[in-house]
Amino acid sequence: MREKKSCPIDKTLEYIGKKWNLLIIRDLFLGKKKFNEFLESNPQLSNKVLSQKLKELETHSLIEKRIISKTPLLAEYYLTDRGKALNKVLFEIAMFGVENISQELTLRTCSKESIEHLKKSLNL
Predict the structure, then answer these.
(1) Is-contact 62 51, C-beta < 8 A?
(2) Residue 13 · residue 22 · CB < 8 Å
(3) Which helix (H) or strand (E) holds 38?
(4) Alpha carbons 34 and 28: distance in angstroms, whole number
(5) What is the pLDDT of residues 97-113, one digit of tens each?
(6) How confident is the model at residue 54 (pLDDT cuts 50, 70, 90)?
(7) CA atoms of 24 and 17, how far apart (whole Å)
(8) Which domains does the chain have, with CATH numbers?
(9) What does the alpha-carbon distance between residue 62 and residue 83 come to, in Å, rounded to a whole number?
């Protein structure tokens, strides 16, 4: 029998550390709300996997789904307060990339304006 995770880092990574979860959360901070917008932002993500990941994030109370129209079915996704609390985590991950992996990033990505846009998007 597996022991329950009691470390806060382990537990948090259980929620956000799975492939695509953090990128979906990032997209929500950047204003994307609709199913197709997530697919456009992440071309390698399939419809099936996106649907599973959205349900998973909703189950963990990081996002909420709001039905906009029933015919045709149209839904939008929003960060919950719990999901919004990840803003500092995303910012620190981004800054680590800017400061330590910048040779793999374009200069445009690393610009001061981009960092300010990131801060604004993450409400920092």
Answers:
(1) no
(2) no
(3) helix 35-41
(4) 9
(5) 877 776 665 544 556 77
(6) very high
(7) 12
(8) 1-80 (1.10.10.10), 86-124 (no CATH)
(9) 4
